[in-house]
Amino acid sequence: MGLIELVLAGLCLNATCPDESTIESLIISPRQRELTMLAEELKMETLRITTFNNGELSGYRKKGNELIGTGVAFDIIHILQDKYNFNYTIVAPEDNVFLSPTKKLGAKDLLINSRADLIAAFLPIINSFHEEISYSRRFDTAEWVVLMKRPSESATGSGLLAPFTTPVWILIILSLLVVGPIIYLLILIQARLTRDDNNRVYPLPACVWFVYGALLKQGTTINPTTDSSRLLFSTWWIFITILTAFYTANLTAFLTLSKFTLPINEPSDIKQRRYQWVSNRANGIKDYIKEENKEMLPRGAKLADIIGNGTTFPETDDMSILTHYVTDRDMMFIREKSVLDNIMYKDYKEKTKKGIDEVKRCTYVVAKFPITKFPRAFAFRHNFKYTKLFDSAIQHLVESGIIEHKFVENLPDTEICPLNLGNTERQLRNADLLLTYLLVAGGLTVAIVVFILELLIRRYWKKPRRSLRGLLGNNKHVPTPPFENNNNYDNFDYIKKITPPPPSYNSLFQPPFNYRNCQKKNINGRDYWIVKDGRGGRELIPHRTPSALLFQWSR
């Protein structure tokens, strides 16, 4: 070993270092020393804790002459008690709520009057209460959601009307009523402007019937001859083809898939659709709405303006509310999501024990959207000595996930009665085919009414028409019809009274009857009259042959 090493070794052996207690005292901050002192003082304290019954969250029960705390709130109190070794007594409020509307003292009143040190309950943090009480560190930001009785069918509807929404159906009906007259007017205007002999003005009923027939994929006897009318007809056909394709695809999806939707999609739907909602009397949302009404907020900014004021706040347990209000009165239950999950799980287990079929066990459903969100915490009286100590411990519980675990400790890993139950098979019910039955019944009813009207018209108009025919019988002049009718629905009695010239003589000097605008052409050594038929095509009529007689009355 060299000289330098010996000198350094001697210095290290003769050095004096502080002991471990001295090092710890130098490292610990003043805040840690304060918390340590408070923890030592708390061991000799007996805290006065007040609470109120609020389902799974907080409450108390009597065990002899002693009050025992229950719920997640007292699970946290017991964790703090094991850590700091303090004692506590429960002071029950006169009114089992946080904010009492009567002269009885609620939990908040006990805190203000210094009759209790803290409130062991999950309280929504309301800013207007900071002057009277102190809140602890936040446990979480809770969601208030809606529980309702599961509807028998999806809100999007079922059956034939399900694929489209109401505005789409309204527009389709309007198009059926409007497109027919539009086609008729455009064809009429085009015929008036062009003055072409080939233009045909189809009557309005024929145009309307074409629009309806295209919707049902039926053919038509109308044969447009002009480009403009053909474009109109093809445009409507393309529109109907696309519309029916979407309808068929969506109808198949609605009848086979089991996707389910609720009648409400956002909080404002509760008030707009006039649904009644209920919550327990000790719920924090009741206190928030009450305090909110005292503030001068603009219209629509309050929670009560969005969901409406609660119609009922019964002082009963959650399962009774589920039975008497949700099931019997079809009301909506607004509650913390963690509480509703536990309620649904209890209801599911009870129905399982009773042997109810699995399909009928999920009679309730929870909406996916939150009504509102509030941070929650304990409450201390002002100048509570151990506020900092409890806040530090609560922060560690929150960061470690213990608080969150306590809310779902008794729940399974899977979702309880989800919105979509996931059924892969779905049989059609009468509700799906109800519109079909109504259409058949409506069609038969309309047909019977029209048939009766036809009988009445024939009966009361028959005599006047016969008398008119008698007056026209002596008149040899046959009136010319005002327009050329393209169908054979009318009775052409006046044609029977016309005596044409002999066929051979007529064929020598004139074109065939009813074909004035035709041409003569020699084909393969024979003469033919080239005439145009009603469909835009051409026909050949032999010239100066006995068979020409057959073509005079072909139209």
UniProtKB/TrEMBL annotation:
It is a multi-pass membrane protein. One of its GO terms (biological process) is detection of stimulus involved in sensory perception. Its main location: membrane. Keywords: Cell membrane, Glycoprotein, Membrane, Receptor, Signal, Transmembrane, Transmembrane helix. SUPFAM superfamilies: Periplasmic binding protein-like II (SSF53850). It is found in: Cell membrane. One of its GO terms (molecular function) is ligand-gated monoatomic ion channel activity. It holds the Pfam family Lig_chan. It comes from the Eukaryota. InterPro entries: Insect_Ionotropic_Sensory_Rcpt (IPR052192), Iontro_rcpt_C (IPR001320). Residues 1-18 form the signal peptide. Residues 167-366 form the Ionotropic glutamate receptor C-terminal domain. The chain crosses the membrane at residues 168-189, 201-216, 236-257, 434-457. One of its GO terms (cellular component) is plasma membrane. Belongs to the glutamate-gated ion channel (TC 1.A.10.1) family. This is Ionotropic receptor 2.
